[in-house]
Write a structure and sequence with these properties.
Blueprint lengths: L14 H4 L4 H15 L11 E6 L8 E8 L9 E5 L4 E5 L1 E4 L2 E7 L7 E9 L2 E9 L6 E4 L12 H11 L20 E3 L4 E4 L2 E2 L8 E3 L6 E3 L4 E7 L10 E8 L2 E11 L6 E2 L4 E5 L10 E7 L2 E3 L2 H5 L4
The structure holds zinc ion.
Length: 314
C-alpha cells in the first residue's frame, strides 16, 4: 500500500509529480526489463516499506506519526525518517512499536510555515518519499504591555541546562499506553500556541509552549501518562523561571514538563503510572498566580498536548 497524505483543502499543482518517489519503482522497472528478456518466472518483490502518515490532515502544532511496516528480515535495520520543510532538514528516530513495525514522530509548531514537507523513509536498502501537507492554524494572540525597562526573571544556566537535557531525551522504550489524561481537573486558562505582542511588537520566537490549567493552589497534579521521572527541580536549586518543576520521560522522544508547582511528590528515577499524584499546583518561578503549565515535547519541540488526550497514540 502506498500512502500519500494530501490535504484536499489545499490545492497544490502536480502533487503526484512532486511525489517523485521511489527506489522501489526503479527496482521494479529493472525487474520487468529482465523479465522481458529472460523467460524465467521471477516473483516481483512486494513493497518492502509500507508507510502510513497519521493524522491524514495535520495542522501546525500537531504531532505527525510516520508508521512504517517492514518485511521480516534476519538483520533488521531501524528505518530512518528525514523531513525537509522550507528551511530545515531534520532526522527523527524511528522506534519499534510491534514486530516489523516502527514509528517516528514529526513535531510541528506555530513557528513553522504551513505547506509541504518532504518525508523520506529509508530502511533495508529501500527508500520512500512522501509529500505531507501541513495545514495552517489560527493561534490566539495576546497583547502584553510592560512598563519601560521592566525586565522579566532570567533563567539560571543550571535551570536551562537541566531542562534542555530533559527535552533532548529519545528513550527507545515506550512507557505510555492509550490516550493521555488531563494532569489537573480545572479548566484550561491558556491554550497551546498563543502568540504575543509586547508593547505592540510581535514576539516572533514566542509561542505558549503548553497548556495552562487554572487549578487552585495545592490542587492535585497527576501524571497524564506513564513514564520515568527524569527531572525534579526546585526554586532553591535555581529554577527561577520554571519554579518547582517535574519532567516525565514517556519514552520514544515524548516528554512532559510541569511548572510552577507548590509541592512535589516524586523523585528523579521514579516510574509513575497514568493518574498518579505527582505534585500540587502553585505559583513558583515566573508566575503571576497559581496555575499548572503542562508542556508536551516531541523530539525536542513543544507540540499541542490536546490531540494526545483526545486520541490514543499507541
Ligand atoms: Zn503556561
Amino acid at each position: 500500500m502506498t500512502t500519500q497524505t494530501v490535504n484536499p483543502q489545499h490545492k497544490l499543482p502536480n502533487l503526484s509529480n512532486f511525489n517523485i518517489i521511489n527506489y522501489t519503482n526503479k527496482i521494479k522497472k529493472t525487474f520487468i526489463g529482465i523479465l522481458a528478456t529472460i523467460p524465467i518466472a521471477i516473483t516481483l518483490p512486494v513493497q518492502a516499506l509500507e508507510v502510513e502518515i497519521i493524522p491524514k490532515q495535520p495542522e501546525l502544532g500537531d504531532t505527525i506519526s510516520v508508521v512504517i511496516d517492514v518485511e521480516p528480515q534476519e538483520t533488521q535495520n531501524i528505518p530512518v525518517v528525514t523531513v525537509k520543510n522550507q528551511t530545515e532538514n531534520n532526522t527523527y528516530p524511528a522506534f519499534a512499536i510491534a514486530p516489523n513495525k516502527y514509528r517516528a514522530f514529526i513535531p510541528t509548531t506555530p513557528l513553522e510555515k504551513p505547506g509541504v514537507r518532504t518525508v523520506r523513509i529509508t530502511g533495508n536498502g529501500q527508500e520512500r518519499n512522501l509529500a505531507v501537507l501541513v495545514g495552517d492554524r489560527d493561534f490566539p494572540v495576546q497583547r502584553i504591555n510592560l512598563p519601560p525597562g521592566k525586565a522579566g526573571v532570567k533563567a539560571t544556566e543550571y535551570e536551562l541546562q537541566r531542562v534542555a537535557q530533559l527535552k533532548a531525551l529519545q528513550t527507545p522504550e515506550k512507557y505510555w499506553e492509550r490516550a493521555f489524561i488531563a494532569p489537573n481537573k480545572a479548566r484550561i486558562s491558556t491554550k497551546y500556541g498563543v502568540r504575543r505582542y509586547y508593547n505592540g511588537k510581535f514576539a516572533k520566537d514566542y509561542y505558549h509552549r503548553g497548556v495552562d490549567y487554572a487549578g487552585g493552589a495545592g490542587s492535585p497534579v497527576v501524571a497524564p501518562a506513564a513514564g520515568r521521572v527524569a527531572l525534579v527541580g526546585t526554586v532553591a536549586q535555581g529554577f527561577r523561571v520554571h519554579g518547582n518543576v517535574i519532567g516525565i520521560d514517556h519514552g520514544q522522544g515524548v516528554v512532559s514538563i510541569f511548572m510552577h508547582l507548590s509541592k512535589i511528590n516524586v523523585q528523579e528515577g521514579d516510574f509513575v503510572k497514568a493518574g498518579q499524584l505527582i505534585g500540587g499546583i502553585g505559583s513558583t518561578g515566573a508566575s503571576t498566580g497559581p496555575h499548572l503549565h503542562w508542556g508536551l515535547y516531541v523530539n525536542g519541540k513543544s507540540i499541542d498536548p490536546i490531540p494526545w488526550k483526545s486520541q490514543s497514540i499507541d
